[in-house]
Specification:
Order of helices and strands of chain B: HHHEEHHHHHH
Helix content of chain A: 55-70%
Oligomer: heterodimer
Number of domains of chain B: 2
Strand content of chain B: under 5%
Number of helices of chain B: 9
Radius of gyration of chain A: 20 Å
CATH topology of chain A: Arp2/3 complex 21 kDa subunit ARPC3
Distance between the termini of chain A: 17 Å
Shape of chain B: flat
Number of helices of chain A: 11
Number of domains of chain A: 1
Number of strands of chain B: 2
Number of strands of chain A: 2
Largest sheet of chain B: 2 strands, antiparallel
Shape of chain A: globular
Chain lengths: 282, 259
């Protein structure tokens, strides 16, 4: 991706737009220093879908720049990774919901595409929240249960409410300007999609599994389960290390799924469409 | 008002190499992270504030004091609720949980103040060039520095459009947060569209100036670590080693806390 100047510029512009809209809302805090009301969270989903890896890197860098305005700290590392996944999942998972030959254009002009967009938005919100909440709980900053649930809802609301509107406005223009990631990148630059469906499944298991297990441990619900089953409860709630270790398998699943998702089918579909439109090939 | 925290002062901290300041920042994070006990946290805070005073950058605390206060309050509440100790104080609050909560709040605030001092003494160009000198690929560092440069421009464009619409009678101030977001969203779309539309022209301008043509490139800003950087890093390394040794000997924790 980095060898395409347009993609480098799109990284910078995505990051700048994201940061420019994040910063004014830094004062509307939910958990001060960690999350706030963020309508800007719509951009990772939309930019990820339209600009692919450029949108994902732009989301990560944009969030880091937002932290430069008062909240730069170790949590910014988790924010970088989490926001990267916020932009990464939409473009990686999009193609896995379509069969070969189906229209894979990255817009929401049908009921099916809107439903897929909403599903991916929710999963990406969960995965982003997992990374940030896991790291901040591990280093003793904020309890997992508080941060994970708030970030998930905060991300998803912005993406679901504002995303379709933004996509309907931006997609036709971005396509006309030749800036869709599927039109800039070549098929051999994108991993193949042989294990795409497996990657899709693992991502859902990793994301939702981590959220459920983390909440159960963080809220001490497993103790109540033990008590209900007739066992004596432990000496206290789950420690940060327990949550940190318990979620590692799910995080590993998320990373593995990221490599399996591919994305090449979308670039090839775009190439076929261009060839049909112009009678030429790349 | 300049949204960035950088303060143009002539201090020995400003004259340090940006890579030195990045290492000091990471070291400050480690130092803050080591001690959970708030008494030790106050000692670390004193060191960080002393460094900030030497850099004449503590005036920026006026811009972030509210964030620091809110973080401290929320952190104390959260860990008092989610943590547990052995010595009851009042209601559901235990002494060890409260101590841990105050210590956690101090740690977070120390790290944010350290980040503020770093950004107050390091220009954006120095950050980008410093990253490249540390081995970060140039194109990635270029994207970061370009984004940093464009943030005020995009914010100013959005502000100009908002003012133009207000002068035509559009009310953007009234209503709750949801209503204001709804009213502002249509104004932002022209900003995004015009910004993204400039991608192709921007790319052509870069390539016409040889962007990416050569594997290695030269920089206007020349960085060199000198004796001052070495002395500062050595002193800080000694402080860090002492802190780690103290922690390994068992000082700086909160006995009886669990979560």
């Amino acid at each position: 991706m980095w060898r395409h100047t347009q993609m480098v510029v799109l990284v910078a512009l995505s990051a700048a737009i994201y940061a420019a809209v994040l910063i004014p809302f830094k004062g509307f805090t939910i958990i001060p220093g960690f999350t706030e009301v963020r309508p800007a969270n719509v951009f990772p989903f939309v930019f990820g879908l339209l600009f692919g890896p450029a949108g994902a890197w732009g989301a990560a860098i944009g969030n880091l720049i937002g932290d430069f305005f008062g909240t730069l700290g170790p949590g910014s590392i988790a924010g970088f990774i989490g926001n990267f996944f916020l932009g990464f999942l939409p473009y990686k998972m999009w193609g896995s919901f379509f069969r070969r030959g189906e229209n894979m254009e990255q817009n929401v002009n049908s009921g099916k595409k809107l439903a897929i967009y909403i599903a991916i938005t929710i999963l990406a919100s969960v995965v982003c929240a997992i990374w940030i909440a896991w790291f901040n709980d591990l280093i003793g900053f904020v309890p997992f249960a508080a941060l994970a649930s708030i970030i998930t809802v905060n991300n998803a609301i912005a993406g679901i409410v504002l995303g379709p509107i933004l996509l309907l406005v931006l997609y036709p223009r971005v396509k006309r300007w030749g800036l869709l990631w599927t039109e800039i990148m070549a098929p051999d630059e994108v991993p193949d999609s042989r294990y795409q469906r497996l990657g899709n499944l693992l991502m859902w298991v990793g994301g939702l599994g981590a959220l459920i297990v983390g909440l159960v441990l963080g809220l001490g619900l497993y103790e109540q389960g033990f008590a209900a089953a007739g066992f004596a409860p432990g000496s206290g709630g789950a420690t940060g290390v327990a949550i940190g270790l318990a979620l590692i398998p799910f995080l590993v699943l998320i990373v593995i799924a990221s490599f399996l998702l591919g994305g090449r089918e979308q670039v090839e579909a775009a190439e076929e469409e261009m060839a049909t439109d112009t009678g030429t090939t790349r | 008002m300049d949204p960035f925290l950088y303060l143009d002062r002539d201090t020995w901290v400003h004259r340090l190499d940006p890579r030195t300041k990045m290492f000091l920042l990471i070291g400050a994070f480690v130092l803050a992270f080591l001690f959970v006990n708030p008494l030790y946290g106050i000692g670390v805070l004193a060191i960080v504030l002393a460094f900030g005073a030497a850099a004449k950058s503590l005036v920026n605390l006026e811009r972030i004091w509210f964030i620091l206060l809110m973080i401290a309050v929320m952190t104390v509440i959260l860990w008092t609720v989610f943590g547990s100790g052995e010595t009851p104080l009042f209601w559901f609050v235990e002494r060890e949980a409260l101590l841990y909560a105050i210590g956690a709040a101090l740690r977070i605030d120390i790290m944010i103040v350290a980040g503020m001092i770093f950004l107050s003494t390091t220009r954006n160009e120095e950050i980008a060039t410093g990253l490249v000198k540390l081995g970060i690929p140039y194109r990635f560092a270029f994207a970061v520095s370009t984004a940093l440069r464009l943030v005020p421009t995009i914010a100013a464009t959005g502000s100009t459009i908002g003012q133009a619409q207000r002068s035509r009678g559009l009310d953007l101030e009234s209503g709750n947060i949801i209503q204001r977001v709804r009213k502002n969203t249509p104004l932002l779309i022209p900003v995004f569209v015009s910004t993204i539309r400039s991608t192709n022209v921007f790319s052509m301008a870069l390539e016409s100036k040889g962007f990416g043509a050569a594997r290695e490139r030269t920089y206007f800003l020349r960085l060199a670590m000198g004796r001052r950087d070495a002395v500062v890093l050595l002193v800080f390394a000694l402080v860090l080693v002492t802190a780690v040794a103290l922690r390994l000997m068992g000082y700086g924790g909160v006995e009886g806390f669990s979560r």
